[in-house]
Structures are given as C-alpha cells and as structure tokens.
Amino acid sequence: MNIALVAHDVHKNLLVDFVIAYRHIFQKHQLFATGTTGRRISEAAKLDVIRLRSGPLGGDQQIGAMIAMDDIDMLIFFRDPISALGHEPDITALLRLCDVQRIPLATNVATAEMLIRAMENGFLSWREEIHKYETAKLNGTEHI
Ligand SMILES: O=C(CO)COP(=O)(O)O
Question: Where is the active site (predicted)?
C-alpha cells in the first residue's frame, strides 16, 4: 500500500512516535510524506520515505495530486486543529480529495491506530482490488 504521512508542527513528535510504535507494519509499505514530516520520520524510524515538498510550499497539493490519480491508499494527517495556517486552502483541498476518491483518512491518532490495525488485518484489501482493476483497464483486459 502507498501510505501518505503528514503532520503539522504541534503533532510531529506524535506522528514520529506513532510510526515507530507501528514500524513493523509501516516497513511493509511505501511511505510518502511532506518534506519536514518525512525527514523526521526517516531519521527517527529509519524507514525509507519518499519526501515531497514541505506543506506550505506545495507538499499537500502534491499528495492531493497523487490521491486524485488514486496512487495513495491511506492518508494519516495529524493536522493542527487550533492554529490558522497560511496554506489552509491546500489542506482543505487535500482532505476533500480523500472524500472524492474514498481514501481512508485519519486526522488524529485514535483513528490512525484503527486504520493501521485494520490494514494489518486485511480490511483494506479492497484497495488492492481497485489497483488490479485500474491496471486491467489500462491494459484493456478488464472484465468487470
Ligand atoms: O504543512 C504541512 C502540511 O499541511 C506539513 O509540512 P511539513 O511536513 O513540511 O512540515
């Protein structure tokens, strides 16, 4: 699965701790993250993370573009629910695209924990079926 990880500054430590706690699961998947979040995770958890731009410089939009292409299977985004941020429109757009594409989205640690455990137990395998179907469609071999 392709998992996108994003955290605003107030929650970066929480996300790093979360990834370390579930490292045995995260290490089986391809991780993407906005710039600073990705650096913090790769340094602390020693995992490979594909880093995009920092959020305020377009990282949210980059992840949004991947979601629009159905290239992300889950987004964990520990956002700052208190402070107003200059790139709020990008954040709103990213969350909206998750709903457009029906991408599992966690914006707090309690939901993230449920999503990760659900994925580990196979409850998100329907995402793999979507990938198979999309690939078949590209190759002109879909039978659905
Ligand atoms: O601002 C962000 C998401 O909106 C996160 O960006 P960074 O991971 O670069 O701090």
Answer: 60 (proton donor/acceptor)
Q: Known catalytic residue: 17?
A: no
How many angstroms separate the alpha carbon of residue 5 from the centre of ligand 1?
A: 10
Candidate CATH numbers 3.40.50.1380, 3.90.226.10, 3.40.50.2300, 3.10.580.10; the one for domain 2-139: 3.40.50.1380
Nearest CA to ligand 1 atom 10: 36
Domain residue limits, the chain? 2-139
Please give the full DSSP string across 76-114, using - where no structure is assigned.
EEE--SSS--TTHHHHHHHHHHHHHHT--EESSHHHHHH
Query: Which one-letter DSSP state was computed for residue 5?
Result: E
Task: Tell me phi and psi for residue 67, to 5 degrees.
Answer: -65, -40
Provide the 10 A C-beta neighbour count for residue 108.
14
pTM of this prediction exceeds 0.95:
no
Instruction: Give this complex's ipTM.
Output: 0.98
